[in-house]
Amino acid sequence: MHPEAFVDRLHVEISGPDDGPAVLLLHGWGSNARLMAPIAAALSDRYRVVNIDLPGHGLTPPPPAPWGVAEHAALIAHLIRTRIGRPVVLIGHSNGGRIGLYLAGEPEGPTLLRALVLISPSGMRPHRPWHYYLRATLARLLKAPFQVLPAPLREAGLAWLRHTLVWKALGSSDYRQLTGVMRETFVRVVNTYVEDRLARISIPVLVFWGERDQAVGRKQMERLVQNLPDAGLVVLKNAGHYGHLDDPATFVAATRHFLATLPPLSM
Fold this sequence. Notes:
- InterPro entries: AB_hydrolase_1 (IPR000073), AB_hydrolase_fold (IPR029058).
- Pfam families: Abhydrolase_1.
- This is Alpha/beta hydrolase.
- The chain has a seven-stranded mixed beta sheet, sandwiched between helices.
- It is α/β, with parallel strands linked by helices.
- It has helices at 37-43, 69-84, 95-104, 109-112, 130-147, 151-162, 165-170, 173-177, 180-190, 218-227, 243-246, 248-261; strands spanning 11-15, 22-26, 48-53, 88-93, 113-119, 205-210, 231-236.
- The chain is 44% helix and 15% strand.
- Strand 6, helix 10 and strand 7 (231-236) form a beta-alpha-beta unit.
- The two termini are 34 Å apart.
- Helix 2 packs across helix 3 and helix 5 runs antiparallel to helix 6.
């Protein structure tokens, strides 16, 4: 199934005036639209807010096959074109921010997106501890004997390997909790980085980062902002990875100010 055909399976929540400027909310990995609902409630007095569950999250079923960020971005692009019908401000948390950055770097990005508001977005390469590289090397060594087999035997062997205790011990806690298509989707998504796209993102970007965030580091956010043509960083005091929930007053006030400064859509 092409990502565009999946759009009718999305769980979508819409609030706000029909003719209001469009805002699209994308939650992070392992989350859902419910955790973005406070943003919708805060903005729906003026904005047409579209809040969705991404594939395999909340009330939306998993994708029909393992998807990477490119497929998620294609799905969002089709949603904007066919269901929203006008350019949106995309507010993305964590992996939702990664998808937003990826889409903004596509050739059609400026025609679909007016701006990005990102909350601790993923997609920037982190500094990895030595044991991360050790686990990655061991995983490659375990997979190597199966890679030389014919396709049917290779897939059967890799499927067996993924169910062994040794393989599961090498994966992250998020990986170990997943099964089926979502496990491979997770691998594809978290190994996609957006650094090579940043220079061609021409729309305004506002980035929020909580100073107590243990999932995304400040240096990653500073590199992100420095490499975007038009971006600013807001550091949320005493907030963690879910900055929009930890400090909603600052997040909403800064976001509303940012949205108010955007040029109106040309008709």
